[in-house]
Amino acid sequence: MSSRNDPRRGDSRSTDDVILDAAAELIVHFGVQRTQLAEIARRAGVSRPTVYRRWPDVRAVIGALLTREVLRTREAVPDTGDDRASLVERSVEIAIRIRDHPLLGALLVSEPQLLTEYVVERLGTSQRGLLAALADGIERGQKDGSIRAGNPAEMAAMVLLIAQSTVQSHRMVADLLPDEAWRRELAKALNGYLAP
Predict the structure, then answer these.
(1) Cα separation, 179 vs 43, whole angstroms
(2) Which among 10, 17, 25, 27 is positioned nearest to 50, based on CA atoms?
(3) 150-156 long-range Cβ contacts below 8 angstroms, 24+ apart
(4) What whole-number distance in Å separates Cα of residue 43 and Cα of residue 173?
(5) What is the C-alpha separation between 100 and 4, in angstroms, rounded?
(6) What angle do CA 155, 142, 191 make, to 5 degrees?
(7) Could you give phi then psi for residue 186, rounded to 5 degrees?
(8) Whose CA is closest to 60, among 125, 106, 129, 6?
């Protein structure tokens, strides 16, 4: 058993986090196809029943992992103001961090269909969290006068769609749209959509 991942060490990580960290390591290094619950348990230093009590299969672990990582990414980018510029800057930074996230990148390369299911075909917990933060930022920007009138929930959904599509397709246009241009053009697209 690996003591660095052993939840009995008394570190501040929960058993869930230890298990999810182990799953992330396996997925990044070996891909989804070679990641099994038994191996996740071994790497996490917990019993198989401990994992099975939380998640019935690897797909459920991946769903929990995606939710955790997207929400952590959102929380790691500070909310710096109530105006459109602050909302756009934060949205672009979150998009870049999600785009460059090692786990999400590994899933996009090794399991694009699985990632599509979690990101495109259903509205999950992580996306609902992003939508709530966007709607709040849009409402504040509307009060500030820097964001046009409209239904904040609907506008948040469109901002999410714009950012999400650029994240998913960035590899396809990387030669045409290098990183700095990608960042700049996404900011222009969001500013243009939200401007009064």
Answers:
(1) 35
(2) 17
(3) 155/193, 155/194, 156/131, 156/132
(4) 37
(5) 26
(6) 60
(7) -65, -45
(8) 125
d(CA 157, CA 172): 24
Give CA–CA dist 156/22, Å, rounded.
33
> Crossing angle of helices 152-169/84-99, nearest 10°?
40
Residue type, 138: I
N-term to C-term CA, the chain: 58
Tell me the residue type at 22: A
Q: Write out the DSSP string of 42-76.
A: HHHTS-HHHHHHH-SSHHHHHHHHHHHHHHHHHHH
Contacts 24+ apart (CB under 8 A), 48-54: 50/15, 50/19, 51/19, 54/16, 54/19
Per-residue pLDDT reduced to its tens digit, 22-75: 999 999 998 888 899 999 999 999 999 999 999 999 989 988 998 899 899 999
pLDDT digits (tens, 9 = 90+) for 100-127: 999 887 777 667 677 667 666 677 788 8
The pTM (predicted TM-score) of the whole model is 0.83
